[in-house]
């Protein structure tokens, strides 16, 4: 996607020993890029949410392994890179998917080949993510066209939560890919953007993305979605996910579950867009997904731009009150209308997933 007319991905190789990323902690106020020069830099970028979003976490971990192999291509260094990167964030399964794939390619290969092999495989993971998200966009676009066809030219209103756009992936996004494609082909579309407390990925990242691409959107408080659904102002919801279990349960940014409940109560279709790297075939229920517990500071403080352009963090809660901050929740499969994947759409059930990915039967 483009920023100020210049095409960007969220992660890119710089020569064959560094990796560039967009510093997402500075958006939407500042657009800054950073260079990752070591496996530790990659681990820090994931942990500090300089990069975030399940597919991008996976791609960054892959480059993290590649950076480790540049420094030391021993078995011990490979194991260490795997373990350090695997510890960075607990919920997005793409992290483990990417690490497994990198280790599979590198283990049992001569040391002198590993650095080049790792670099090439990380680049392949990033390139594939772009193509997978493009395919998700094309399949999701069919759904948007169908809903739009019933509206006689009136604007299609889509609600999304958190950021499952190109900033969460390498390009295009998952939930937002169909929206970009609909906009590009001239479908009248408007997006309700949940602000997504406490880190506000909706207000800061999704709104930034949509605005940069010229897609009409409105930021709403997380609590407002149910109201707009009751008022008939949401035609469908599309969200991304950090992990889908083999029975179709969906872990996504905290607050997704409440939106799915409201959608069910109001008969609003609720779709989840995902690459197959987000499916955890080893878990049979969302109850087993590890939920990241994040610092209460994200809840009790807020960072924003001052009139002079500087950034400042302020306390917003009663001094001394504790806070709890689970990063994700689990939406049971029964509340999900369907999955949009790179191989097409399916029912949000284990059977539905296996019909698209029969190799996991
Ligand atoms: O904590 P984050 O910002 O990494 O979480 C990302 C999300 O939960 C996204 O909403 C998402 O749907 C998964 S990434 C496409």
Mean pLDDT: 97
Distance between the termini: 36 Å
Given this structure, which CATH class of the largest domain is correct? Answer: Alpha Beta
Quaternary structure: single chain
Whole-number tally of structural domains = 2
* Topology as a string of helices (H) and strands (E): EEEEEHHHHHEHEHEHEEEHEEHEEEEEH
What's the alpha carbon Rg, rounded to whole Å?
A: 20 Å
CATH architecture of the largest domain: 3-Layer(aba) Sandwich
Bound molecules: 5-S-methyl-1-O-phosphono-5-thio-D-ribulose
Q: Structural class given helices, strands, pairing?
A: alpha/beta
Range of helix content: 25-40%
What's the CATH topology label of the largest domain? Rossmann fold
User: Which consecutive residue ranges, at least 5 long each, have pLDDT under 50?
Assistant: none
Task: Output the keywords.
alpha/beta, Four Helix Bundle (Hemerythrin (Met), subunit A), Rossmann fold, 2 domains, four-stranded mixed beta sheet, 20% strand, binds 5-S-methyl-1-O-phosphono-5-thio-D-ribulose
SSE blueprint:
Layout lengths: L1 E2 L2 E2 L3 E4 L3 E5 L10 E4 L2 H9 L6 H18 L3 H12 L7 H13 L4 H39 L6 E5 L16 H8 L4 E6 L6 H13 L2 E5 L4 H6 L5 E4 L3 E3 L4 E4 L2 H11 L3 E4 L5 E2 L16 H4 E5 L5 E5 L12 E4 L6 E4 L2 E3 L3 H7 L5
Parallel strand pairs: 6-7, 6-9, 7-8, 9-12, 10-13, 12-17
Antiparallel strand pairs: 1-2, 3-4, 4-5, 10-11, 11-16, 14-15, 17-18
Helix pairs in contact: 1-2, 2-3, 2-4, 2-5, 3-4, 4-5, 5-6
The site of 5-S-methyl-1-O-phosphono-5-thio-D-ribulose has 17 residues, from helix 2 and strand 11.
């Amino acid at each position: 996607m483009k920023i100020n007319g210049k095409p960007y991905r969220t992660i890119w190789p710089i020569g064959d020993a560094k990796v560039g990323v967009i510093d997402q902690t500075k958006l939407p106020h500042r657009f800054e890029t950073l260079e990752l020069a070591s496996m530790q830099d990659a681990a820090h970028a994931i942990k500090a949410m300089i990069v975030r979003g399940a597919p991008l976490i996976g791609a960054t971990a892959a480059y993290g392994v590649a950076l480790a192999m540049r420094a030391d291509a021993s078995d011990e260094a490979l194991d260490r890179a795997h373990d350090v990167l695997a510890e960075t964030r607990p919920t997005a399964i793409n992290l483990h998917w990417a690490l497994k794939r990198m280790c599979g390619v590198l283990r049992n290969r001569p040391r002198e080949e590993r650095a080049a092999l790792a670099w090439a495989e990380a680049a392949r993971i990033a390139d594939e993510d772009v193509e997978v998200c493009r395919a998700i966009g094309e399949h999701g676009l069919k759904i948007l066209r169908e809903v739009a066809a019933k509206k006689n030219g009136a604007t299609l209103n889509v609600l999304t939560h958190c950021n499952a756009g190109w900033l969460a992936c390498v390009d295009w996004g998952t939930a937002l890919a169909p929206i970009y494609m609909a906009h590009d082909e001239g479908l009248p579309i408007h997006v309700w953007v949940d602000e997504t407390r406490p880190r506000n990925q909706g207000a800061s990242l999704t709104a930034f993305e949509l605005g940069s691409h010229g897609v009409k959107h409105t930021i709403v408080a997380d609590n407002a979605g149910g109201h707009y659904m009751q008022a008939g102002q949401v035609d469908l919801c599309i969200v991304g996910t950090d992990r889908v279990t083999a029975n179709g349960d969906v872990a996504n940014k905290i607050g997704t579950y409440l939106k799915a409940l409201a959608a069910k109560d109001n008969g609003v279709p609720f779709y989840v867009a995902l690459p197959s790297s987000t499916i955890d075939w080893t878990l049979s229920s969302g109850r087993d997904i590890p939920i990241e517990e994040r610092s209460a500071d994200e809840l009790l403080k807020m960072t924003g731009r001052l009139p002079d352009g500087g950034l400042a963090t302020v306390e917003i809660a009663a001094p001394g009150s504790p806070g709890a901050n689970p990063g994700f929740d689990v939406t049971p499969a029964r509340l999900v209308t369907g999955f949009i994947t790179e191989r097409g759409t399916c029912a949000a059930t284990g059977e539905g997933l296996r019909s698209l990915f029969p190799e996991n039967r």
